[in-house]
Design a protein that fits this description.
Blueprint lengths: L3 E4 L5 E4 L9 E5 L6 H8 L3 E3 L34 H14 L1 E8 L4 E9 L5 E5 L6 H6 L4 E6 L3 H14 L5 H24 L3 E3 L1 H16 L1
Parallel strand pairs: 3-7, 3-8, 4-7, 8-9
Antiparallel strand pairs: 1-2, 5-6
Length: 222
C-alpha cells in the first residue's frame, strides 16, 4: 500500500500506512449533480464529508496533463480525471485514524481553492457525498473499511431542473455553459445510473435514503 502524508493531532505531518483502525461506518452517497446528495449528507452525516471539494484546480490544467474536454470545447468537470481521488481517499483515512481532516474550500465559479477547513467526527457515521464516488468504493473495501454505498435514484428531468435552478442562483458558471452542461448531463443520466449500479451501489430514491440514513445515524449515536 502506498504511503500518504496526513496531518496528525499535534499539528505536524506524519506517515501512516495500513488499514484504518476505526470501526466508524462510512456511507457513500453518489449520484448526479443536483440529485440531493449534499442535503442528505449534511442532515445525517456526523460528519458530512463533501468529496466534490477535492476537484483539481484550474491551474493544474496542462500541469502536467491537460484536463479532458467536452464536445463543446470546455473543460469536462464531469469527468473524474478533474478530481483528486487520492486526496479524497486520504480525507476518509484521516477521519478514521485521527477523527479530523482538512477539506479545501473549492470555488466552482473560479475552479480554485480559497482556503481549507477542518472537519471532525462526532458520533458517526461518516457520510461522504460527491459525483465521482463510483471511483472509490473498491479502494475503500480493499482497505477493509466498513463502507455502505448508495445512489440517489431520482428522475432525470427532476434532477436536471433542480441542478439548473441551483447553479444559476449560485452563479456557478456562465448560463450558456450551464445550459450545455445540463443538456449533456440529462442525456447521460441513464448511463451514469447504470455505472453506479455496476459498481455495486444500491439504488434508492431520495425519500428511501432519508429513512435509511435516519436509522443509521440514530443507531451510530446510541
Amino acid at each position: 500500500m502506498s504511503q500518504h502524508p496526513i496531518a496528525d493531532g499535534r499539528g505536524f505531518w506524519a506517515i501512516i500506512e495500513g488499514v484504518p483502525n476505526s470501526s466508524t461506518p462510512v456511507i457513500l452517497i453518489g449520484g448526479p449533480s443536483g440529485s440531493g446528495k449534499s442535503y442528505l449528507a449534511s442532515k445525517f452525516g456526523r460528519p458530512h464529508l463533501p468529496l466534490d471539494e477535492f476537484y483539481r484546480q484550474i491551474s493544474e490544467d496542462g500541469n502536467p496533463v491537460d484536463f479532458p474536454r467536452t464536445d463543446y470545447g470546455e473543460i469536462d468537470w464531469d469527468n473524474s480525471a478533474t478530481w483528486n481521488q487520492e486526496a479524497a481517499l486520504q480525507a476518509i483515512d484521516d477521519l478514521l485514524h485521527h477523527g479530523t481532516t482538512l477539506v479545501p474550500n473549492y470555488s466552482i465559479t473560479t475552479s480554485s481553492y480559497n482556503g481549507h477547513r477542518e472537519i471532525a467526527c462526532a458520533d458517526g457515521p461518516i457520510v461522504a457525498e460527491g459525483i465521482f464516488l463510483y471511483e472509490i468504493l473498491d479502494p475503500l473495501r480493499a482497505k477493509g473499511i466498513n463502507v455502505q454505498a448508495y445512489y440517489v435514484d431520482e428522475p432525470a428531468l427532476v434532477t436536471a431542473l433542480r441542478r439548473f435552478v441551483r447553479d444559476v442562483a449560485q452563479r456557478r458558471k456562465p448560463v450558456l455553459f450551464l445550459v450545455k452542461r445540463g443538456y449533456a448531463l440529462f442525456r447521460a443520466h441513464g448511463a451514469d445510473r447504470e455505472k453506479y449500479r455496476q459498481r455495486q451501489f444500491t439504488l434508492k430514491s431520495k425519500p428511501e435514503l432519508k429513512k435509511l440514513l435516519a436509522k443509521l445515524s440514530t443507531g451510530a449515536s446510541s
